[in-house]
Design goal:
This protein is mainly α. The chain is built from seven helices and no strands. Helix 3 packs antiparallel against helix 5 and helix 5 packs antiparallel against helix 6. The longest helix is centred in the first third of the chain and has 36 residues. The chain is elongated. It binds protoporphyrin IX containing FE.
């Protein structure tokens, strides 16, 4: 089998699996509309979100490794520094890892600590007041991640031949609009 094509398939399927911010935002919006609930609902919800981080690290690493291997196999990895599309893709990937690390090493442990203090059927008011702002921060970061992943896909399809600048800018605008929309609502019809 052609190794380049195999790597390309791995690269693209990894990117598909990096859609976690979209689905996590949908889950988060569902949780908000659910309102006050049994403590088990929050524990279940946090288990799902918490588990995403390690998966995300692994998919990000796979995107990086397959990306570099594609370059080596396709010519030279040095084009990472001469092709601005590839360089931007790398920078966006590093930004994604940075944002994920903020959630994984700072926000999530704080939420977990507060949640561990909760007892009874529903979350006590004091715990809820502490968790609320942290969840909001995490949600904002997730929508930035969604925007970065979408924009990186937009760059991915321009590695060999760049689109016209205005086309790229319009699509970046639409990516921002979609990320904002998913941040605000449950998008029951996919795009809206
Ligand atoms: C979040 C990170 C990334 C995303 C979302 C992403 C996405 C994509 C997508 C959608 C393609 C299109 C494939 C096609 O046209 O069939 C692509 C191609 C490519 N990517 Fe990435 N990529 C990422 C990171 C990287 C990195 C870090 C590198 C290099 C170090 C890289 C190198 C490449 C190369 C060389 C291609 C061209 C493959 C080809 O058309 O033959 N990618 N990427």
């Amino acid at each position: 089998m052609d190794l380049y094509n195999l790597l390309k398939f791995l690269h693209v399927i990894t990117v598909v699996f990096m859609a976690a911010p979209l689905y996590n935002l949908i889950v988060v919006n569902e949780r908000v509309s659910f309102g006050k609930a049994h403590l088990h609902v929050d524990q279940y919800f946090e288990n799902i979100i918490r588990g995403s981080s390690v998966r995300c690290y692994i998919f990000q690493l796979t995107a990086l490794v397959t990306g570099v291997l594609l370059l080596i196999r396709g010519g030279s990895w040095l084009s990472l520094f001469t092709n601005w599309v590839l360089l931007l893709k790398l920078l966006f990937l590093l930004a994604l890892t940075g944002l994920l690390s903020v959630v994984h090493f700072s926000i999530q442990p704080q939420i977990d600590k507060l949640l561990a203090q909760a007892e009874g059927d529903t979350m006590p008011q004091a715990v809820a007041a502490g968790i609320g702002p942290l969840r909001l921060k995490r949600k904002r970061l997730a929508s930035v991640c969604l925007f970065l992943v979408t924009t990186t896909v937009l760059l991915g399809v321009q590695v060999d031949s760049a689109f016209r600048l205005q086309t790229t800018l319009i699509l970046v605008g639409l990516a921002a609009l979609f990320s904002w929309r998913v941040y605000r609502t449950r998008v029951p019809y996919g795009w809206v």
